[in-house]
Design goal:
The chain has one helix at residues 42-177. It is mainly alpha-helical. The protein has one domain (29-157). The longest helix is centred in the middle third of the chain and has 136 residues, at 42-177.
């Protein structure tokens, strides 16, 4: 309201029913009722603006927690979901590790069995070689014994033939002498 409240209206009074905005030509500045005490300085305007900003911030602080409650609930639900997903992933990873460990054990067992089989084959081959060597030795011994027997028989036959020849020669000599 203007300073002339209650007593008639000034032609430039915006509260007047027939008020129209005046141009500077129609209403010179000196005709306006101007009271410097009613105007705010720049510093006062800045302070007023700051106060308004603080009030708005205070109001928004009051409103924000209520507005944030659903967001907090959503965030909590998302966090729980993420934690459950992480737990599932950890369980799956543990199961895969256990499977991998079991597969590694099976591979180790198979490798150990293969090594045992290879060692058994090698032992069997060595035993076969040894048996073949013994058979070869026995065959050589038999051959040597047969040769020795042949040589002994030949010597006996020679000695017997020599004795017979001597006996025949002695008989022949005795017959000549007689």
């Amino acid at each position: 309201m203007t300073s002339n409240q209650g007593g008639g209206t000034h032609p430039g009074d915006p509260w007047s029913p027939d008020w129209k905005p005046a141009t500077s030509e129609e209403t010179p500045e000196e005709d306006w009722p101007y009271d410097e005490s009613l105007t705010l300085s720049d510093a006062e305007l800045e302070i007023a603006e700051l106060d308004d900003d603080e009030e708005l911030e205070a109001e928004s602080d009051v409103i924000e927690p209520e507005a944030q409650e659903p967001e907090a609930a959503d965030t909590e639900a998302e966090a729980e979901e993420a934690a459950a997903a992480a737990e599932r992933e950890a369980e799956e990873a543990a199961a895969k590790e256990a499977e991998a460990a079991a597969a590694a054990r099976e591979v180790e067992e198979a490798a150990a069995k293969e090594a045992e089989a290879a060692a058994a084959e090698e032992l069997a081959a060595r035993e076969a070689e040894e048996a073949a060597a013994k058979e070869a030795e026995a065959a050589a011994a038999e051959e040597l014994a047969a040769r020795e027997a042949e040589e002994a028989a030949a010597k006996e036959a020679e000695e017997a033939a020599a004795k017979e020849a001597e006996a025949a020669a002695a008989e022949e000599l005795a017959a000549r002498e007689a």
